[in-house]
Amino acid sequence: MPPTDDLDDTERTTEELADVMFSGNVIEVLFGLFTFRISLSSVDLIVSYEVGPEQIALLTAELGQDEFRLTWPVAPQTRGPLLVDPGQAALLKRALDARSSLLGR
Fold it and tell me: In angstroms, rounded to a whole number, what is the distance separating the alpha carbons of residues 47 and 21?
């Protein structure tokens, strides 16, 4: 995947975001535990979850045995809607719109 653009300005226009993507860069939008990485080739959703040393050792051992199981409990679910920064939400919408326009959708 192309290098990430240092995009901290949520005021970029859809056209500016399209230029960023067209030049091969990735736009990252942060929503708490979620990170959207938007490029011309893909839209990736990365979920951040903190794991301890024991879980890392278990995961490493399972990968060494050609297995991969998530055997520890997942993070507790929060109740209610996910609170996001309005600027990041607007950035996500403009970035997805820019990608769609570049792909002719």
Answer: 22
**Helix, strand, or coil here: 98?**
helix
pLDDT > 70: percent of the chain:
76
**Residue 3 burial by CB count (10 A; 0-12/13-18/19+): exposed, middle or buried?**
exposed
Give the relative orientation of helices 86-103 and 14-22 as an angle to the nearest 10 degrees: 60
Tell me which residue range forms the domain holding 96: 14-71+85-103
At which residue do the structure tokens 């949520």 appear?
10
In DSSP terms, 14 is beta-bridged to none
Q: Is 1 within a domain?
A: no
Q: What is the pLDDT of residues 17-62, one digit of tens each?
A: 999 999 999 999 988 788 999 999 999 999 877 777 887 787 777 7
Domain-embedded: residue 8: no
